[in-house]
Amino acid sequence: MSNADLDKAARTILIENDQGGYTIPTKGLYPYQWNWDSVFVALGFATFDQSRAWREIEMLFEGQWRDGMVPHILFRKDDPSYFPGPSVWGTDGGPIPSSGHSQPPVAATVIKDLVDADGSGKALERAAKLMPQLMNWHRWYLAYRDPKNLGVLAVIHPWESGRDNLPDWDEALRAVEVKDIGPYERKDTSHVDPAMRPHKEDYDRYLSIMAACRNVGWDPQKVAETCPFFVADPGVTFIFLRANRDLLILAERLGLDADAEEIRGWILKMEAGAKTLWNEELKAHVALNERTGRQTDGISSASFLAPYAGLADQATLTSLQGHFDRIASKVRYLMPSYDPDHRTYEPLRYWRGPVWAMINYMIARGFAEAGDSERAGRLRQDTADLIATGGFAEYFSPENGAGAGGGTFSWTAAIWLTWASPSHQKQAA
Ligand code: DGY
To answer: What is the distance in A from the centroid of ligand 1 to the CA of 83?
Structure first.
């Protein structure tokens, strides 16, 4: 397919996955509105319909809970093709049936991008309306995902990280007691090859964590205190730190002085806190099980998001460049979700090796901002080649570029449109 044909195919995917103002990630496997999927999708829509891009994010925030949390899934209508649906989550925190935890907070960054891309001033007005909701979501993160004030954010479920079955969660997940789950039937493995999805032992524990949180009524304080899984995640932490920098710029432009002051405090705290995720042996940021105090021992694609978070001091950058080049010598396509030199690496199983387009986009952006346009360019080229080879798949093999997981995937289409496609190239080289 020519690049123009790929542009057209990407727009068609977004239009066909559009449910009337919000977009599903892909038909069959993921039939609802997912949090960070939707936000990346907005970037794709913005390349041909800015107003529709805003609608995507506004509809996501319609599901915000009374406590400030923006859920990872909004179940706007019941769809029996997905498990676990609303009755399993058993939540009651907001106006729309939803899951009980969040997903990486990319929204403030994308909202700032939409404002920057608009010359009319209308986008700033739409951003102004969302500011109180963004502030409340970020306050929620700090209160309930960093209750010890460490300056890093934890996830209470692997799904909250958006990087569902990353090896980083293995040890903490194994410690979760399997209980209160009853018999259940997975649906994901009827949509895609089970070899590309998490194992049953993982699913038992995913459901056990949900049961534990349901048993405390999804009360955010109690969840933070008692959830059997509580792991500080460099992915969510770096995305949040970056989002706060963008939120600060928005607050300053809108003259929201008190908000701006509050956000400056968050940034300082997180810049210091990120050091607790630094693994001196690996010379990279890793996850930290807050229940045991143990750091993980592998490099994930989120380790490369430090520059995106604005943490691009020379030592960090040099070390990441070394890891980047080492990994590039092992696989054909960057950036695998887990280090190919690590014992747990699997090139086709969900987050244990495959490449994701939107992660490449964020890594490249950080590297470009840190002055490394060469590696940023490599990531863009690899992403474009992967899509040209493997189609608009959910993710790709770093070894041969095969598309895997769900097909006609919205965020892959969106990242193509906003960044990887030669006709829409912007930001990260
Ligand atoms: C899944 O894989 O179904 C999870 O809900 C992901 O968010």
So the answer is: 9
Alpha helices in 216-341 (DSSP H): 220-226, 234-253, 257-273, 314-328
- CA torsion angle 411 413 418 422 (round to 10): 150
Dmax (CA) for the chain in angstroms is 55
Q: Tell me what pLDDT residue 281 has.
A: 98
Q: Which two tokens stand for residue 338?
A: 């887990």
- Ligand 1 atom closest to 83 (CA): 3
- CA–centroid distance, 315 to ligand 1, in Å, is 36
Q: Using CA atoms, how far apart are residues 205 and 145, in angstroms rounded to an integer?
A: 20
382 lines ligand 1 (CB under 6 A): no
Residue type, 324: F
Structure tokens, 159: 């799904």
Single-letter amino acid, residue 292 = T
Looking at this protein, which amino acid is placed at residue 284?
Answer: A
> What is the tens place of the pLDDT at every residue in 12-44?
999 999 999 999 999 999 999 999 999 999 999
**Rounded to two decimals, what is the model's pTM?**
0.97
Q: What are phi and psi of 403, to 5 degrees?
A: -75, 145
Instruction: Compute, in angstroms, the gap from residue 159 CA to the centroid of ligand 1.
Output: 6
Q: Which of 182, 246, 175, 174 is nearest to 214 (CA)?
A: 182
The residue whose CB lies within 8 Å of the most ligand 1 atoms, and thus the one to mutate among 88, 156, 157, 159, is: 159
